[in-house]
Design goal:
Number of strands: 11
Shape: globular
Distance between the termini: 12 Å
Largest sheet: 6 strands, mixed
CATH topology of the largest domain: Alpha-Beta Plaits
Number of domains: 2
Strand content: 15-25%
Order of helices and strands: EHEEHEHEEHEHEEHEE
Number of helices: 6
CATH architecture of the largest domain: 2-Layer Sandwich
Strand order of the largest sheet: 1-9-2-3-11-10
């Protein structure tokens, strides 16, 4: 991991390249006595095919000294901290869904619903798999999907997709999978959110990714602790993460460094989040049109 000197002035953020050491080193304020932990800010950058960029700077602890013997992991489902582990899994799934949505350039959300109060997860998943299988025969269906459970227990699917969808085709396939009711009525429906009407659009594609990812962290009575929280089509390969250790010693320096890194991709439609207590700052930009200049990171 390399060292990065933060650039603090507005002029340097806009114009000057970031200086990166090529030799591994440790900050001056680390204690190199080999007897404890040291804090350092670490920056991570992801760039997606449509020009979206995410930068995260977080304070992380690094142990200087002999390797620590790790405790063996408990078997799946037998951990004493099962609920806490489930919360951690929810946060990881939320992050993965957001990244997958950005990777495919999702800008629309398709919702598959039931007329009846569908509470059986296994049955709902059978319907979902049949829907995907039939749709792949006529269309290259690239998606990231999550299940939402309403307060009354009803299940439905939120599906992030890219580009204009053939609404009649989606509805026809979904209704054919579910079948008709006892009185011959349709038992399923499909809704497609227009990206511009609902505030997504080109500059808000990352908003859609965050919106659909929030369902992964929700508690569901219809889901066991070890069951999947989201589903995605095959072939979604997330971009590489470029990681660098910063010299900054304060949260202010971390924020300034994050803005320096993401400046090469512009600030259009940018979202930001920070937490001083956790020592984390997160920045995300909207897709870019035209050529994207290489970020000096």
């Amino acid at each position: 991991m390399n060292e990065l000197n933060p650039i603090f002035s507005a002029e340097s953020i806009a114009l000057s390249p970031l200086c990166i050491d090529t030799v591994e080193s440790t900050p001056d304020y680390w204690t190199a006595d080999g007897k404890g932990w040291n804090d350092a800010y670490v920056a991570r950058r992801r760039v997606f095919p449509d020009g979206q960029c995410e930068v995260t700077v977080s304070k992380e602890r690094h142990f200087v000294g002999p390797a620590i013997t790790r405790k063996p992991h408990a078997k799946r489902g037998e951990s004493e901290n099962r609920e806490a582990n489930d919360d951690d899994a929810g946060r990881r799934a939320k992050k993965n869904v957001r990244l997958c949505c950005k990777q495919i350039g999702a800008d629309r959300m398709v919702t598959l619903t039931y007329r009846e109060n569908m509470c059986d997860r296994e049955t709902a998943l059978k319907h979902w798999k049949a829907f995907c299988r039939r749709l792949r025969k006529v269309n290259n269906f690239h998606y990231v999907a999550v299940i939402e459970e309403q307060e009354r227990g009803a299940l439905h699917f939120h599906v992030a997709v890219r580009g204009r969808q053939h609404y009649a085709l989606l509805r026809s396939i979904w209704q054919s999978v579910i079948g008709l009711g006892s009185d011959g009525q349709q038992m399923g429906q499909v809704n497609v959110r227009d990206p511009h009407r609902f505030g997504f659009g080109q500059n808000g594609a990352h908003k859609l990714a965050s919106y659909i990812a929030k369902y992964c962290s929700k508690q569901m009575n219809a889901r066991e602790l070890d069951q999947k929280r989201y589903f995605r089509s095959k072939g979604i390969v997330l971009p590489d993460v470029l990681t660098v250790r910063l010299h900054c010693k304060s949260m202010l320096g971390a924020v300034q460094s994050a803005f320096s890194i993401i400046g090469a991709y512009g600030y259009t439609g940018m979202q930001s989040w920070s937490n001083n207590g956790l020592g984390v700052v997160w920045l995300s930009t909207a897709p870019r049109t035209g050529d994207v200049s290489e970020c000096p990171f």
